[in-house]
């Protein structure tokens, strides 16, 4: 990922928090037919340090896993928003402004392991369910489904683990603009209902 120093985020705790918020990621691997990509929810384990391990599963019918072991790239995206040149006071002063896009992106890379062990798969499915059902008034649990049905569904998926050898984050939040322009971006984004991105721009003024 192209990563100018003023957009780089290297704090592992911040990167982990963003991954946990994002939930779903794009999983990219190289196979015999070229690059393969799937869009899947993932879990993050903190070990091994410093970057941790990503866990998830794809459908057994998905040919991506048949590419075998190799390097994998997981791409997580955070909040993003279009930024109009009209947000910049600089536009009135010189006109030397262009549109851009503010966004958060995290790339995790490492060797991928594919597996179909039923207990490991059950553990991943259970954890994913608990993560996404936990805040609901009546959360669904894997054990709510008949055991034979769950066993059948587990046979229809393949799990993966990616111990991360590299983890990098990009918070492109107008850090390259002068203070007045950054303030203008915050105001414009809030008027457009992009509060989450506005908050990140504001936060990144001093980080």
Task: Report what the structure shows.
The protein is α+β, with helices and mostly antiparallel strands and 207 residues long. The chain is 29% helix and 35% strand. The chain is built from 6 helices and 9 strands, in the order E-H-E-E-E-E-E-H-E-H-H-E-E-H-H. It has helices at residues 12-22, 90-93, 118-133, 147-154, 179-191, 195-203, and strands at 8-9, 24-31, 34-41, 43-45, 53-59, 70-83, 100-115, 157-163, 166-172. Strands 1, 2, 3, 4, 5, 6, 7, 8 and 9 form a 9-stranded antiparallel β-sheet that branches. The radius of gyration is 20 Å and the shape is elongated. The relative contact order is 0.20. The model has no long low-confidence stretch (mean pLDDT 95).
Beta-strand percentage range: 25-35%
Could you estimate the helical fraction of the residues in percent? 25-40%
Whole-angstrom Rg: 20 Å
Poorly predicted sequence stretches spanning 5 or more consecutive residues: none
- Reading off the top of the CATH hierarchy, the class of the domain at 5-82 and 100-116 and 155-176 is best stated as Mainly Beta
Q: What is the 3D shape?
A: elongated
Task: Look up the CATH topology of the domain at 5-82 and 100-116 and 155-176.
Answer: Pnp Oxidase, Chain A
User: What's the order of the H and E elements?
Assistant: EHEEEEEHEHHEEHH
**What is the CATH architecture descriptor of the domain at 5-82 and 100-116 and 155-176?**
Roll
Could you state the CATH homologous superfamily of the domain at 5-82 and 100-116 and 155-176? Electron Transport, Fmn-binding Protein, Chain A
Q: How many distinct helices?
A: 6
């Amino acid at each position: 990922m192209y990563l100018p120093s003023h957009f780089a985020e290297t704090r592992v705790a911040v990167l982990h928090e963003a991954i946990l918020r994002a939930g779903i990621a794009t999983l990219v691997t190289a196979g015999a037919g070229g690059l393969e990509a799937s869009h899947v929810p993932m879990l993050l384990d903190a070990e091994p340090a410093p970057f941790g391990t990503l866990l998830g599963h794809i459908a057994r019918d998905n040919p991506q896993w048949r590419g075998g072991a190799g390097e994998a790239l997981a791409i997580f995206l955070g909040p993003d928003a279009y930024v109009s040149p009209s947000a910049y006071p600089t536009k009135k002063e010189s006109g030397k402004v262009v549109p851009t896009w503010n966004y958060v992106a995290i790339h995790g890379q490492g060797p991928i392991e594919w597996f179909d062990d039923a207990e490991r798969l059950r553990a991943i499915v259970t954890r994913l369910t608990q993560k996404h059902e936990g805040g609901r008034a009546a959360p669904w649990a894997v054990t709510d489904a008949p055991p034979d049905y769950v066993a059948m569904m587990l046979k229809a998926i393949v799990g993966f683990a990616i111990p991360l050898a590299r983890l990098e984050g990009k918070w492109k939040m107008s850090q390259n603009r002068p203070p007045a322009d950054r303030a203008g971006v915050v105001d414009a984004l809030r008027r457009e209902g992009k509060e989450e991105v506005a908050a990140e721009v504001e936060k990144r003024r001093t980080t």
